[in-house]
């Protein structure tokens, strides 16, 4: 039963989250925002309203490839959201600007996540190598090193959750206060933002399940 639950988390949860994001985005990318402003215009207005005149906005290829680059102070929006007038474009643009505001305010969880990037990246690449090598060679010390590396990657995923939820909350507040969306559009915007958040929740669940599995294997092997 435990292994079945693990497989459900590992395979079905991410697939469900991705499907939810794609279907929600597809639906609301066809719904125009009442002010008929593009995602780029939404981003620029919110940035300017918060005094972030030095943060640039760039168009980037891909679908849902939108992100904020804190090193270069750039909000990058995928072509459909950069040029689009949809409710989805406005929501996603505002969410990415939410990260820019976090950066400007030195939001604690964002700073913590940035500090984890080097070791989390190393853990993501090296953990399985140590774990597999440890089990093959019968060296539990290697498995333990792998589990420790993996724990940093998992911590990164967990810290990402409050960062993303906070950015979405900031996005909603900015969209409402600036008048970009009206009362009847708040529900649509929340649906887009909530669907996007599911991908981070799913990623965190998968990472945590993997860590628990290998940690349990390590302790059981030691007991034997």
UniProtKB/TrEMBL annotation:
The keyword Transmembrane applies. The chain crosses the membrane at residues 128-156, 192-220. InterPro entries: Zn_peptidase_2. The keyword Membrane applies. Keywords: Membrane, Transmembrane, Transmembrane helix. This is Zn-dependent protease. Coiled coil: none annotated. It comes from Gracilibacillus ureilyticus. It comes from the Bacteria. It holds the Pfam family Zn_peptidase_2.
């Amino acid at each position: 039963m435990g292994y079945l639950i693990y497989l459900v988390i590992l395979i079905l949860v991410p697939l469900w989250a991705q499907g939810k994001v794609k279907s929600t985005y597809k639906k609301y990318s066809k719904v125009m925002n009442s002010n008929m402003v593009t995602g780029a215009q939404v981003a620029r207005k919110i940035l300017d309203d918060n005094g972030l005149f030095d943060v640039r906005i760039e168009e980037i290829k891909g679908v849902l490839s939108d992100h904020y680059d804190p090193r270069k102070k750039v909000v990058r929006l995928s072509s459909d959201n950069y040029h689009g007038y949809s409710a989805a474009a406005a929501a996603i643009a505002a969410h990415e600007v939410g990260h820019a505001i976090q950066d400007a305010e030195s939001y604690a969880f964002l700073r913590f996540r940035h500090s984890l990037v080097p070791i989390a990246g190393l853990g993501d690449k090296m953990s399985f190598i140590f774990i597999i090598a440890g089990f093959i060679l019968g060296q539990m010390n290697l498995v333990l090193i792998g589990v420790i590396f993996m724990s940093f990657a998992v911590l990164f995923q967990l810290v990402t959750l409050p960062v993303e939820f906070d950015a979405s909350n900031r996005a909603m507040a900015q969209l409402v206060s600036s008048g970009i969306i009206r009362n009847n559009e708040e529900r649509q915007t929340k649906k887009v933002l909530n669907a996007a958040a599911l991908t981070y929740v799913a990623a965190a669940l998968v990472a945590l399940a993997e860590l628990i599995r290998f940690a349990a294997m390590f302790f059981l092997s030691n007991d034997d």
